[in-house]
UniProtKB/TrEMBL annotation:
Record localization: Mitochondrion inner membrane
Annotated source species: Brachionus plicatilis
Keywords: Electron transport, Membrane, Mitochondrion, Mitochondrion inner membrane, Respiratory chain, Transport, Ubiquinone
InterPro entries to which the protein is assigned, alphabetical: NADH_UbQ_OxRdtase_su10, NDUFB10
An annotated GO cellular component: mitochondrial inner membrane
Name this protein carries in UniProt: NADH dehydrogenase [ubiquinone] 1 beta subcomplex subunit 10
Signal peptide (from-to): none
Topological category with respect to the lipid bilayer: Peripheral membrane protein
Length: 133
């Protein structure tokens, strides 16, 4: 008769190990060349920062441009518009965070728990209007 735990479809462990070894070997066949190429060529030629993190050099502000230097005027204006757009997005993000905090915590608890987010948003708005308006 069978034991208390039963002999339900016991499989030989050595056959499982052989199967797993073959599966791992098959994976190495496909993964090996890709890993080799990545380690030897891609990572060695990659810059320190990802390609989508581009650093733009700061240009002089418009009051630092020489008289009649129209290229400098143009670059200064473009820098100003970029900075303004970034500051606008920052204020929008801070406003959304404060709003989501109030929604999550409710009108009564939100007043205390979201005070810091609200203050940060107000400060960012004040700085934005001082700088850009």
């Amino acid at each position: 008769m069978s034991s208390a735990h039963g002999d339900h479809g016991s499989v030989d462990l050595s056959s499982q190990n052989k199967f797993m070894n073959r599966l791992v070997g098959l994976g190495k066949i496909f993964d090996g060349p890709v890993t080799f190429f990545r380690e030897k060529f891609v990572e060695k030629n990659r810059n320190e920062y990802p390609y989508y993190h581009r650093n733009y050099p700061r240009v002089p502000t418009i009051d630092q441009c020489a008289y009649g230097d129209h290229i400098c005027f143009f670059e200064a204006n473009e820098q100003y518009f970029r900075d303004r757009k970034v500051d606008k997005f920052i204020t929008q993000i801070l406003g959304r965070r404060a709003e989501e905090c109030y929604i999550h915590n409710g009108p009564y608890d939100g007043f205390e728990r979201c005070r810091k987010l609200d203050e940060d948003h107000e400060k960012a708005l004040t700085n934005y209007y001082i700088k850009c308006r």
